[in-house]
Design goal:
This protein has a five-stranded mixed β-sheet with strand order 2-1-3-4-5. The protein is of the alpha+beta class. It has one domain: 3-Layer(aba) Sandwich (Cytidine Deaminase, domain 2), CATH 3.40.140. Helix content is 28%, strand content 23%. The protein contains four helices and five strands; from the N terminus they run H-E-E-H-E-H-E-E-H. The model has no long low-confidence stretch (mean pLDDT 97).
């Protein structure tokens, strides 16, 4: 699967975004070590702090279906700047990074994207209880 394939899945997933407050749809496509892909979108709530990001939706879907090893996640958002994962999502990604270092693809308007390693985005996660 190419980066573009995964990014296209993330864009598709953004179509289900529930975003009555921000009007900013985000989609994510998470590639697991076994090749399976789980998608997610952001799901907002009137209590704004209860909003769930697209990345965490995809990760929770994958974990609840028995996957815990992830190799790549594509994040789709049509903004002026690259749609980077928030701190909470980075911490959740780090939870399942294990000894690996997943790749994080972030888009912006016009279809451009950048690629990072999770260790670049989240070099010192909280892990006291690991
Ligand atoms: N959001 C995501 O779903 N993922 C990101 O990487 C950044 C932010 C969502 C949360 C909220 O629904 C909206 O984008 C605006 O912050």
């Amino acid at each position: 699967m190419t980066d573009r394939d995964l990014l296209n899945m993330a864009r598709e997933a953004a179509q289900n975004a529930y975003v009555p407050y921000s009007h900013f749809p985000v989609g994510a496509a998470l590639e697991c070590a076994d090749g399976s892909v789980f998608t997610g979108c952001n799901v907002e709530n009137v209590a704004l702090g209860s909003t769930i990001c697209a990345e965490r939706t995809a990760i929770v879907k994958a974990v609840s279906e028995g996957r815990r090893k992830f190799v790549r996640i594509a994040i789709y958002g049509e903004g002026e700047t690259y749609c980077m994962p928030c701190g909470a999502c980075r911490q959740v990604m780090a939870e399942f990074a294990g000894s690996g270092d997943m790749e994080v693809l972030c888009t912006r308007s016009g279809g451009r994207y950048v690629s990072y390693r999770l260790s670049q985005l989240m070099p010192h996660p909280f892990e006291t209880f690991r």
